[in-house]
Write a structure and sequence with these properties.
mainly alpha; 4 helices; globular
Amino acid sequence: MERMEKLGAVIATLIAGALVAAQPPANSEMGKQVGTLGAAFISIAISFALVGVALVVTGGAGQLSGLSKFKAEYALGGIAGAAIVAVSLVTVRELGAGGVVAATVCTQLTVSVILDRLGVLGLPGNAITPLRLTGVTLLIAGTVLVTTSD
């Protein structure tokens, strides 16, 4: 059963990844009509509405009572979401979808490995192994190739 749950998680993540790849060009096109910040706002408003509906439909709205224990560092998730939407809808015009996603994923992996090592924000504190460093290095190399090739 655990294997099926992991497979489901991988499939869901792959689908989300495909959507993320299409997000910057879609938002960029919308930005041509309503401006950069307007497009970022509309994109985030749609996200807000969809997650709000999912929260209500799944019965999870009651868990919002936990907001009384909100800490400032929790705001990083929302700040990151706003930053990626606003920045990528502009940078996709120069880098293309592949370049934006490559640069985003490269930075995500690099910082994630550091966050894992430091054990911040509730992470267990995983070691930086030679294999992890190799993976980060290869991703950096791939990002350079994707963002500098014509």
